[in-house]
Amino acid sequence: MTEPLVKPKRKDPLKRTRLPLSPQGARSRTALGLVAAAAEGRFALQVCDQCAKIVYPPRDACPACFAPAPPFRDVPPEGALLATTTIRTSTDTYYRERMPWRVGTIRLDCGPSIVAHIHGDVSDGDRVRMSLHLDRSGQAVAFALPLTETPAMADDPQLREMTCDPKFRRALVTDGRTAVGQAAAKALSDAGASIVFVGLADEWKPFPGDAALRAIPNVEIVPLDVTNSESVGDLAADIGGRVDIIVNTAEHVRPGGLMARRGLVVAREEMEIRYFGLMRLAQSFGPILRMRGADGVNSATAIVNFLFVHALANLPEFGAYSATEAACLSATHSLRSELRPGGVKCINIFHGPLETEWFQTVPPPKVAPSALGKAAVDALRRGLEDVFVGDIAQDIRARAAANPKALEREL
Amino acid sequence: MASSSFSSADLLRFASAVASGDVRVIDLTQTLTPEFPVIVLPPEFGQAAPFRMEEISRYDERGPGWYWNNFTLSEHTGTHFDAPIHWITGRDLPEASVDTIAPRRFVAPACVIDVSKQCAEDPDFTLSVDHVLDWEARHGRIPAGAWVLLRTDWSKLPSRAYANMKDDGAHTPGPGAEVMKWLIEARDVHGFGTETIGTDHGQATHFNPPHPAHHYIHGAGKYGLQCLCNLDLLPPTGAVIISAPLKIKQGSGSPLRVLALVADGDRE
């Protein structure tokens, strides 16, 4: 049984903060198909479309029939753990700090055998459920999990290396004024975050949900305005070293395409709050997060962004806003690359219209703010990179992948 | 040259009185900070931008020997001047934007009406003609061409109380409709200045006409000053206000430094 995590002691100020190291991260282009699956929490392997053989490790041609480029498809993840080994020493700088480390061989019910990281709650001969996780280098690795949930399963030290679990971590929700911000604060608190800092701009402006927000356990209100560089810098100076997870909930949804609006005032607000806001957070908090990527049980671990799914394909009804979101999406890709040396993830949670005031005229289905809060925590717990919440987001994602030009016309 | 009773020697005497402190210069300006509240309209309307500052360089790789900033804000952020063109009632007047107003209009005497005690008890305090007549009974008639500055001590409040926004709008003191019309028509004032976020009462949307301060002041080609501070340091009469806005092409207003000149001989 996994030993439940205990809340980490305060740091010994005489000890140096260890710098983050990465496990080996080189992969072939073909093997990046596993990363695409791991980013979304799917278990996918190559399936030959000629002879139906399931292929592992990734190859450029089917080893059975030589058909080129077998595509990645979701496959059943169950299998049997054939044998395990506990590694006690290594020359690899990342793993030698994390010894002992269990690996094992799993024979999947669907065919191939996989050498994988092994959860502490499974042993030789057990039935297991395979998953693909993004490790600290950002690459996909196979992980053998118990078939069903075990007590304190997420606390397994090897698994926790792959995830961004909020338990005993300190989170910063950047805007508590929004419904999504309040939902995220609640979800993080429920998930065991030891502190949930919640940013509030213009404290003098009242807002709905104020009292309920302050009543959430472990919530600490902090002054933060993502449109104000000084404010973001000041907060990072105060609490930057105590923030392990940032959930950016600053939003500014406004309707209208490029010609539907007069002037740039609203567009500038959108860019200030969303794109430049993200940039300010990245500049002030990013370097501290990246430096603290291996700082014990409550190491810095992730920045979570909520993105309008029409960042992928513009919705003219919200045309200018979609364009802002596309800028944010691109920025997160840069951020992801910049945070990777610290093993810190950048998690994107895509959503369609929300059950909030500015989507009032949009027909359902719409996503409840609480669903986004829960999705953020779920993504952190599983260490995902891309999550599509709700029917609209999943639909747009599928159509954008299938035929982006057709989708552009359809919207 | 037309004959004038005011000589350059008088002007130099004034300058040396400023230098010596016999004429005190009082700053009526709030510091421009990102945190200072700006007027909030219903979200579907366009919004005034708050003050924001981005460093260009600070003796670093972006500029090793110098420190400077870019800043952004609206014409109506912080302590600011309202030109007649700001309001629809003043849209067709001549010399109504900050770049076309004659510079001599930026220097004018002030009458300071102290209603701070009433405002401390009632944030919805509304200035009436009777209040002004009562003030005139004590300090004399308001001369034509003088600023009327409303001292509420509102500038001393913390931000939340200063904006005082409730679910039925802002609750901040200001003038009623009748007194604004009267100040313009019966007293021909130079303009109206307040410590609150605007020249109008917090609930002025519900007055008739709505926003009477803006309506009457600007309709008559007069000026507004708001977000003032230090009005408690001014005498009821005798101060001279220097309030020159930035020369913005077709500007409806401008943040500015508002200075009051006070001759110390008056107070003793």
Protein architecture, described:
The complex is a heterodimer of chains A (411) and B (268). By secondary structure, chain A is α/β, with parallel strands linked by helices. Chain A has 2 domains: 32-162, no CATH class; 170-410, Rossmann fold (3-Layer(aba) Sandwich). In chain A, 32% of the residues lie in helices and 21% in strands. In chain A, helix 4 (179-190) packs across helix 9 (369-382). In chain A, 43% of the residues are buried. Chain B is α/β, with parallel strands linked by helices and 268 residues long. Chain B has a single domain (18-38, 51-266), classed as Putative cyclase (Glucose Oxidase, domain 1). Chain B is built from 6 helices and 15 strands. Chain B has a 9-stranded mixed beta sheet. Chain B has a two-stranded antiparallel ribbon with strand order 2-3. In chain B, a hairpin with a 2-residue loop joins strand 8 and strand 9 (169-170). In chain B, helix 5 packs parallel to helix 6 (212-219). Chain B is globular, with a radius of gyration of 19 Å. The chains are: A alpha/beta (411), B alpha/beta (268). The interface between A and B is medium-sized, with 17 and 20 residues.
